[in-house]
Amino acid sequence: QSQRCNFGIMSIKLRELIRNVRACKSSAEERKVIFKECALIRTSFKEKVDSGLRHRNVAKLLYIHMLGYPTHFGQMESLKLIASPKFNEKRIGYLALMLLLDETQEVLMLVTNCLKGDLKHKNPYIVGLALCSMGNISSADIARDLSNEVIRLFGSGNPYIRKKAALTAIRIVKKVPEMVVDFIKPATALLKTKQHSVLITAIALITEICKLKKKYANKFRSLVPSLVRHLKTLLLAGYISEYDVVGITDPFLQCKIIGLLRILGTGSSKASEEMTDILAQISINTEPSKNPGNAILYECVQTIMVIDAEDGLRQLAINILGRFLLHRDNNIRYVALNTLCGVIDRDTTSIQRHKTHIVDCLKDPDVSIRRRALDLIYALVTKSNVQGLVRELVNYLSVTSGDLEFKRMLTDKIVLVAEKYTPSKLWHLNTLLSLIEIAGDVTRDTVAANCVLVSGHNSELQPYTVHRLYHAVKEQVVPSAALRRLAIFCIGEYGNHLVTASSTDDANSKRPSEFSGKFSTHSPSDVLGTLKYILSRPTCTKEVKAYALNAMVKLSTRFDPSMQPAIKATIKKYTSSMSVELQQRSCEYINLLELENGAVRTKIVSVMPTPDKKLIKKAEEDDDDEDEDEDED
Prior knowledge:
Layout: H1 2-10, H2 14-22, H3 27-47, H4 54-66, H5 75-82, H6 87-100, H7 112-119, H8 124-137, H9 140-153, H10 159-175, H11 184-190, H12 196-212, H13 217-220, H14 224-236, E1 244-245, E2 248-249, H15 251-265, H16 269-285, H17 291-306, H18 311-324, H19 330-342, H20 348-352, H21 355-360, H22 367-380, H23 386-399, H24 404-420, H25 425-439, H26 445-457, H27 462-475, H28 481-494, H29 501-509, H30 524-536, H31 542-558, H32 564-572, H33 580-593, H34 598-604, H35 613-632
Antiparallel strand pairs: 1-2
Helix pairs in contact: 2-3, 3-4, 4-6, 5-6, 6-8, 7-8, 7-9, 8-10, 9-10, 10-12, 11-12, 12-15, 14-15, 14-16, 15-16, 15-17, 16-17, 16-18, 17-18, 18-19, 19-22, 22-24, 23-24, 23-25, 24-25, 25-26, 26-28, 26-35, 27-28, 27-29, 28-31, 30-31, 31-32, 31-33, 32-33
């Protein structure tokens, strides 16, 4: 009676177990249900209660395994099911074998004989189960022992078995690469079939063989005409309901064939020539409005860019990528940008025709697309187009908002291309000043340092530099700290140009056409008033105040001596500052202004010598090292 009771409890169906688990309202309740069922299943295995229900218990174990609970105690039961003559039990047994075991477990060796026997079975579905299991968990030893049986099945008259055998062979050649030679002829023979399922698995096997050992690609190059014929048949075929996907005949097989042609055509002019026509036909005739068509076109483009294709065909491939850039799908646009980045060195001229669409990708809300577009634009820059592309990038920088990391990347790229391809010093300076005015504190400190470097080494640019920075710091409602620091530094160094009419005319002559407004000559009191206003702002940091005090003491020798009392009075306010740095500076500057020997003061506050460019580069490297240390922290 107790056995009948146990039998009734243990014979719960998988559907009932799933229903019980879904009815649980907490994790603890779920664990209770699972552990109770596992205990009953263990008891069933131990006492061998009604072995006819073993497959039901193993099926429940598979569900429990999917939930993440330990089920190792059911491994041996799956082997017993595999040895069963019943198909439904074998099916559950092989499924459990693939899920509960892996190739590293020694228990797997016990199933070798069962696999060998099932590979010779008359039932093709049992043969398929054995092949499927081998293809998923076969170890190197099992692959060696049963490889001959798999090769024998390549000649089966059943396409279902041949397909499974080809897929199993992929696992065998991966586990035992030295056995690749044994599968070359059987794989080649499969290409003569007309069944698409067998073709696609045969091509997958040949592709894997070529990837494992590139030298075998030479043996398969004779298959290029056959592959081209298959591809042409697919391209010209009408509607076939069995293989049609949104109006395209078997796009999966087409992609596989084109991928194999790419491998076989690499490094072979003859093979490349044989596949050129069909690739051109696919590029022209494939419908790009559906995803299957886009997948085929992408594979086609990849192949064209790798093989020895003609310039016209290569240009056609890049035009396809250009169309991808206009697609609404973010994934397709990203794929186009990524591919263009990879082929930029092969056909830069053709890619240049699509630079407008590439620049438009910078406005995409997806940050990954913006970054790839930025990388591609950076690679496209040359001496002939640097001015136009940098103008586009600066314009985009002025309208973008948020994502400070991307803005910093953008400014870094602009600085690099401006320095590498600069057509003139004035243009270089204008670019750097525009970055400071627009990006402000997002820019690195080395951008301001480069501005000082360019203007310091080119005295004819100093009037324009100080006038533009003075105009920017006055016009902006809340100028950034980076702009204020650079402007105040240049006012202190070259402030005499602000009060000289000839310097103002010189600055206006260098003013770019897109710059709004006109520079005018200022009085010394106006310049001092601007510095005082900056000092009085609540957003003025201690660092900016230190720059302003430094600029004032320098202006004491550049302006009329009558301005010294006003300068001294402003500096004196900071002798009692709470900041030790500002207090020390102001006290030292007051003593400097009170020196009787004016020549000494003039020499001390003279224009600072411009540093060497190597020092700037070293500072940039140190800045990058600090950023990396912060990321690691």
